[in-house]
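FIELD: query
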Amino acid sequence: MISDRLFVYGTLMRGFDHPMAQLLSRSADFLGAARCAGRLYLVRHYPGLVLSDDPAEIVHGELYRLHDRDALLREFDMYEACGEGFAEPTEYLRKMLPVTGDDGAVHEAWTYIYNWPVTRLPRIVSGRFLER
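FIELD: result
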């Protein structure tokens, strides 16, 4: 089954006054805080998630259940400039990965993985974009 869940860790989280964050809040159910294995970098005014095998490296975000999965994922793909029609390599790739909710339950969720080099980017060591 293709997941209807989306994990966000940056400007799509609650509290951001961005049109795409507003679209998410009215088109999805907020399921709660969640986390995944990874490293977070400050790209510009937004973060990028890079996957990690180190269990000590955690990125914190929010988990949503999308009402109209396909239509919303198309919108978010456009926002993240990834998928069909965008020049490769795109800045982000949409991937499915396991995320852990605050209740300890593991969910398969879509998220956007940063796909460009991070060598010169500052790392957000806390894994929390809002605490940078």
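FIELD: remark
Residues 69-79 form the longest helix (11 residues).
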